[in-house]
Amino acid sequence: MTQGRTDIVLTLVAPAALEEPLVDLLLAMPELAGGFTSSPADGHGTRVPLVGADENVRGRGKRVRIEIALASAALSTLLDAIRQAMPAAPIHFWTMPILDFGSLQ
């Protein structure tokens, strides 16, 4: 894998209340997160804190899921920038390899 090649996808999952600040942070770092996709998600399980009556009734927590395709060489820099900007934020992440990447245009 070459340094600039898009070879992994980083998935971030955070409480829905953090969507705007997290998206704003990523938009401010186009050299690390040049483009990404965000979508609503539901968190399930005993380690998912439920906030408010709505989530307690539903039994699941509202989350945002953000996926960023990037070069693995940029991963630690991006994660460090998020940690520094949002040090107490309960943001979970994982990465997966990308086998192929491109545009159909």
UniProtKB/TrEMBL annotation:
<protein>
    <submittedName>
        <fullName>DUF3240 domain-containing protein</fullName>
    </submittedName>
</protein>
<dbReference type="InterPro" id="IPR021634">
    <property type="entry name" value="DUF3240"/>
</dbReference>
<dbReference type="InterPro" id="IPR015867">
    <property type="entry name" value="N-reg_PII/ATP_PRibTrfase_C"/>
</dbReference>
<dbReference type="Pfam" id="PF11582">
    <property type="entry name" value="DUF3240"/>
</dbReference>
